[in-house]
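Lab notebook, bench 4. The sequencing result for the construct came back, and we need a structural model before the next group meeting so we can plan mutations. Quick request posted to the team channel:

Model the 3D structure of this chain.
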Amino acid sequence: MAGEFTVPPGTLAGARIVRYAVGLRMKTYVVLAGNIGAGKSTLVRLMCEKLGWEPYYEPVTENPYLDDFYKDMRKWAFHSQVFFLTYRARAHRALMDVPRPVVQDRSFYEDAEVFAQALHRQGAMSDRDWETYQALYRTLTTLLAPPDLVVYLRASVSTLRARIALRGRDFEARITDSYLSGLNTLYEEWIAGFALAPILVVPSDRLDFVKDSKGLDAIVSTVTERLRGRQGELFPKTI
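Done. Here's the predicted structure in token form:
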């Protein structure tokens, strides 16, 4: 549940709780989560410029299964998603060893809880493959320490569509509103049940952190308050 912080007993994830405890910890790991077009990459850049932290953007990698996947989704969905999950788990593990504060664009968890889940619900991944994929995901989750904070950029389909249009990427122009809406539903379900790290929800429909410096300042100040263990101001409507 948003705002709660629990760690499965007996897992390596618990090691993060006792790591550093003076002010903002020397090592801070923040993840920005959100749908396609929510503004994750932009906010990573702006936060890191303001705080002097290290940005980590979603890597572009060549999935060797993608061509086969687009030809036969049901046959290759499992292979494709396991590749993505493994790649992101490796990146997550590497970030745990970075000695500087890090802000990451998109999390390991979203691959499983949102995008792979969407394929399963659409019938592109069989129940058998989904159960195997989930078992792998749950195992990796117990082995990877969670981030210190998840910042979720909540955005309506109309906001996502407007921001996607501004980016002008041809392949994103083909994304349908119904697909974005389905991903939004999965994001909300994931956020409602996620308990591995504290969650800060940013109402990005009305909080324009690109055009309005007050919006960015509000996000940065609230993030730093949360990381110090205080609740922080939850974006009053006057912003």
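The chain has a mean pLDDT of 85.
Will bring this to the meeting.
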